[in-house]
């Protein structure tokens, strides 16, 4: 039985206690249980089903990406248990929606579950509402010191991520119902990538929330996601952007399927790092200091998020150069989008260099991360709004 001292253990010792409890010298594969291997088998079976059912719509590269993604998702599920239920729920709801369509896009307006829940537009609207509600509950929990507020916010965020991914999967299928020449992965315009940005940023946050056993950062991270939802709603109303359009020739490439997700994992991680930086600056000044994690924890989250984002953004930049060589005949053309991508990369490269070589920490690192988000936002949106070039197909 736990002693009173153990029950009132300070949060600062939580990670050390967890490490002690989870230490196991056996090889990782020997620590896997029957449920772990059942999950792996289900992932392999799901990929096999997708290949057998939809191989006619896939190029060799698409099939290769699908096959390579299986071990990645298996390891993710092994390392982070909640991801298993999310993956299973996305698959189940997406397949249910596809079954309801029965090959007829018109059923989106006549079938109850499609019209109000599972068509791509309905699911993305649910995602938007759930993210805004999650933001409110996180703030209520933080300001009122209510654990239940944060817990509800966390559950709403999981539900929003689920509906966002389902919306993207169903939108992918809907594009093929419009026409085989129209069908494409839903990451081709600002509407689609803003959905991707929201779910990726939230998913990374949920991982850190569990890893550091704190929900107080949700109030800050969900702010940037809710702002993105606000843009998404405006963009839908003002530009009718939710309509599925054929790909422009420059985007009709399998490179898009790997370049864009890698890019937005980087964007999402940078945004998360910046919002944690805001929390750091507030705590340092005594604002909400008794409700936020320690400065060391905030600094660690900021560093790890930036490092992950930088890694994926580097991969995305390299993939983009390879794609440019195929599409335009050169790896680099100093197009405004490319130039600002380089500025973003150099900014975070300098941040990490100063961190590793000079021990950059504290409020300077936090301000730098926040400034980096502004640079990244201009590279993401500002270039589309104010500049033109080879990437002008993404203009507002």
Taking pLDDT < 50 over at least 5 consecutive residues as the criterion, the unreliable ranges are: 1-23
| Intertermini distance | 61 Å
Which oligomeric state applies? Answer: single chain
Q: Give helix and strand order, one letter per element, not per position.
A: HHHHHHHHHHHHHH
Helix content: over 70%
Q: What general form does the structure show? A: globular
* Radius of gyration of CA atoms, rounded to a whole number: 22 Å
What can be said about the biggest beta sheet? Answer: none
Hey, roughly how much beta strand do the residues contain? Answer: under 5%
Q: Tally of extended strands?
A: 0
Helix/strand class: mainly alpha
**Count, helices:** 14
Give the mean pLDDT: 89
Main location: membrane
InterPro entries: Cyt_c_assembly (IPR002541), Cyt_c_biogenesis_CcsA (IPR017562), Cyt_c_biogenesis_CcsA/CcmC (IPR045062)
Subcellular location: Membrane
Protein name: C-type cytochrome biogenesis protein CcsB
Brief characterization of the structure:
The protein has 396 residues and is mostly helical. Helices cover 74% and strands 0% of the residues. Mean pLDDT is 89; it is low at 1-23.
């Amino acid at each position: 039985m736990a002693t009173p001292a153990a029950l009132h253990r300070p949060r600062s010792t939580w990670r050390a206690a967890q490490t002690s409890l989870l230490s196991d010298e056996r090889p990782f594969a020997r620590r896997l249980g029957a449920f772990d291997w059942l999950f792996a088998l289900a992932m392999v079976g799901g990929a096999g089903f997708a290949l057998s059912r939809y191989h006619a719509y896939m190029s060799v590269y698409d099939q290769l990406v699908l096959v390579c993604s299986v071990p990645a998702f298996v390891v993710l599920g092994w390392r982070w248990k909640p991801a298993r239920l999310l993956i299973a729920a996305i698959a189940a709801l997406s397949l249910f929606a596809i079954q309801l369509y029965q090959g007829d896009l018109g059923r989106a307006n006549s079938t109850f579950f499609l019209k109000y829940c599972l068509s791509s537009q309905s699911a993305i609207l649910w995602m938007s509402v759930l993210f805004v509600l999650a933001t409110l509950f996180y703030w209520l929990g933080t300001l009122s010191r209510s654990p239940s507020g944060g817990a509800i916010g966390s559950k709403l965020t999981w539900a929003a991520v689920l509906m966002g991914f389902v919306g993207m999967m169903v939108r992918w299928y809907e594009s093929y119902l419009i026409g085989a020449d129209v069908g494409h992965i839903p990451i081709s315009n600002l509407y689609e990538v803003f959905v991707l940005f929201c779910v990726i940023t939230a998913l990374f946050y949920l991982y850190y929330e569990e890893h550091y056993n704190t929900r107080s950062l949700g109030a800050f991270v969900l702010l940037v996601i809710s702002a993105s939802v606000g843009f998404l709603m405006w963009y839908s109303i003002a530009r009718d952007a939710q309509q599925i359009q054929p790909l422009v020739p420059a985007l009709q490439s399998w490179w898009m399927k790997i370049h864009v997700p890698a890019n937005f994992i980087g964007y999402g991680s940078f945004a998360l790092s910046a919002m944690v930086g805001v929390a750091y600056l507030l705590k340092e000044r005594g604002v909400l200091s008794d409700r936020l994690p320690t400065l060391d924890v905030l600094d660690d989250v900021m560093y790890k998020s930036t490092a992950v984002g930088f890694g994926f953004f580097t991969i995305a930049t390299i993939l983009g150069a390879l794609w440019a060589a195929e599409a335009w005949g050169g790896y680099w053309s100093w197009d405004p989008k490319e130039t600002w991508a380089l500025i973003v990369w150099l900014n975070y490269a300098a941040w990490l260099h100063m961190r590793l070589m000079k021990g950059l920490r504290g409020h300077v690192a936090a301000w730098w991360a926040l400034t980096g988000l502004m640079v990244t936002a201009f590279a993401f949106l500002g270039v589309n709004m104010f500049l033109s070039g080879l990437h002008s197909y993404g203009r507002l």
